[in-house]
Every structure is written in C-alpha cells, then in structure tokens.
Design a protein that fits this description.
With about 350 residues, the protein is an alpha+beta fold. α7 crosses α8. It contains 11 helices and 10 strands.
Length: about 350
C-alpha cells in the first residue's frame, strides 16, 4: 500500500517546490528510473501462485527438519527460514555461480523412476566453511568476505559431501502430506560453470533458504526443474483429485467477486394487514397506520435477512436512513434488558 502523507508533509513538499529547493522534473525523472522486473510474454509462467504457495509451505516444513539436524550435528543453535520461492530461467541461477562454488546434484525418485533433470543444491562458501569448522570442533568463525576464487581442499570436499547428504536425505519427507518422494544424492560438481546440467532457457523454481548462526549467515538454494515439478503436481492430482481444490486458495478471487456484487438493501418501516377492498379504494393522500412510533428504530434488510437497525431522517433534502448497529448486537442488548 502506498504511503499516505500527512498534511504537514504535503505542505513541506509544496513549499520546497515553490522555493526551488526541489525540482519536480528531477522527482519525475527519479521515479522514471525506478527499476521494474520485466515480464517475458514469450515465456509465460508455468506455475500459479497457489502452486508457489504450496512449495513455500513444503520448504518451510523442510527448514524445520534441517534445523533440528543441523543443531544436533553442529551442537549449536541456528535460525533457518524460507526467503523466497521464485520461478526463473536456469541461466539466472547459473549466472550467479562462480568458479569456486560447489554444486550438489540429487535426483528425484518418483514411482520407482528417476527424473531426468537433477535437483541442484548450492550453499554459499562462507556458510559451508563455518559449518565445517564447527564439525571439527571450532567456533565457526569465518570471514564473510571469502574470495570467490576460494577452492575447497580434498578434506573439505569430504566434509561438504557429508553435510549435504544429510540435508538431502530429509528433503522428500517434507512432501509427505502431499505425495511420497525420495531425493537421492548423486555427486558434487566443483566447478559448476563448466558443466551445463540444465538448459539455460529452461524454467526452474529457485527456493532461497536463509541459515543464520550467531557469528555467520548464508544461503541454501534449491533449484527445482519445471518438468520435474509438473510431473509431481500431475501425480498429486492423479492420486487425490480433491486435493487440487483443497490446497489451492481462491479466497482472494472469491472476495474480489463478492465486493463487486450487487445486493438490495431495503429499509422496513413497519408492516400491517389490509383487506382487499381497502386496498382497492386507496387514493393519493391516504394515510396507512403502521403502528410504528416515529422514535422507534427501523430495520435494514440485505436480501431477506435483517442486518442493521437505523433511524429515519433526511440528507440533502432526500429521505435517508442512518445506520445504527448490527441487528444481532441490538437483539443481545434487548435480551439483556429483559433479563434484568
């Protein structure tokens, strides 16, 4: 929601513009330079917001699992949270990697069949060095400004594999409420910039997970190929067709539709019964006694249900009704008076 300026702030901006301290052209130019992310109409999104929310929920469950495992493995406390779940092109993920990074490959086993495209897991170098230091009995003190050209030693790579194997082993468990999956560790790539594991223009979903220790923090990134996710979602719908509707949240669309709905509001001043011959002889200017005192409240109906009470009056020379309180509150107050 846009920030609402107070009257004093508006006056200050106007005075600054009139005095020449601030140029409106410069402000317009500054706004024009605001960067927005371009939408690629040639490659529309493959996954709906509901699917992205579903993945976010799954990996929030995953963070709780690996939090316990990391705390027990390193004998320390850490905070783990899902930072973002975004649909991107693989080159956006690949371009962020450097020659010194290590990339972990794992494959999904779905219905006793391995998916062709691998799931890629990447941990930032300072975070991994800190975790290794703690495994060896240290305090995890690592310089966050580690060179991008840093190369892991053979011993460090063995420790690296031990950590990521443990993290990948529980990844399938986080999907259990939807489907039974198993992620199998395959290998690590020491220089991922020289290996093309997925097509650069292929769609992937990047899950960014923040891991924070007392003296170090970093990011765990999981790259999920779109084709693999499509197969998973298809299998979920096949096993339980009702789950598709139950998991997707249409509340926003429903409320947007309801807000634009037309409802008839009727003010009921009173009611009476007349014989047919009296109705037949009614003429302009006749008065019908409703047995309803002027000071008594009237009722407002939405549809056929009484929702509010109110008072008759005029507004700008037109007949009007001033809404009072909701009907159930007035009814409760009346019952309370009767009890007293």
């Amino acid at each position: 929601m846009a920030e609402v300026l107070s009257q004093s702030q508006i006056d200050a901006l106007l005075n600054a513009a009139l005095s020449g301290e601030m140029s409106l052209d410069e402000k317009a130019e500054e706004n024009a330079q605001t960067k927005y992310r371009k939408y690629d109409f040639y490659s529309p999104r493959k996954f709906t917001k509901d699917r992205i929310k579903m993945l976010n929920s799954i990996f929030e469950n995953y963070t709780r699992m690996i939090n316990n495992r990391i705390n027990s493995m390193l004998h320390t406390n850490c905070e783990i949270s899902v930072e973002s779940v975004e649909e991107q092109r693989y080159y956006e993920f690949s371009n962020a990697l450097t020659e010194g990074d290590v990339l972990t490959l794992s494959y999904l086993e779905l219905k006793d069949r391995l998916e062709d495209s691998p799931v890629l897991v990447h941990l930032t170098t300072p975070l991994m060095l800190s975790m290794m230091d703690r495994m060896m009995g240290g305090e995890g003190e690592v310089d966050n400004e580690v060179s991008a050209e840093y190369s892991f030693t053979e011993l460090e790579l063995e420790l690296y594999q031990s950590i990521v194997q443990d993290l990948i082993s529980v990844m399938g468990t986080s999907w259990e409420s939807y489907i039974n999956l198993q992620f199998l560790y395959k290998r690590i790539e020491v220089n991922p910039t020289l290996v093309q594991l997925i097509g650069l223009d292929e769609t992937v979903v990047i899950v960014a997970i923040k891991i924070k220790f007392a003296n170090c923090e970093g990011q765990l990134s999981v790259c999920l190929p779109a084709m693999m996710l499509t197969n998973i979602f298809a299998e979920i719908n096949r096993e339980n067709p009702g789950r598709k509707l139950s998991n997707e949240d249409y509340s926003t669309q429903i409320f947007d539709s309801l807000r634009d709905s037309d409802l008839e509001v009727v003010a009921v001043m009173g009611s009476t019964q007349l014989q047919l011959r009296d109705i037949y002889h009614l003429q302009q200017g006749d008065v019908i006694n409703l047995n309803h005192p002027q000071s008594s409240p009237i009722y407002l109906k939405v549809g056929n249900q009484v929702w509010f009470n109110g008072r008759m009056g005029t507004y700008k020379k037109n007949m009007a009704v001033k809404v009072g309180e909701t009907f159930y509150k007035a009814e409760q107050r009346s019952e309370h008076k009767d009890e007293n």
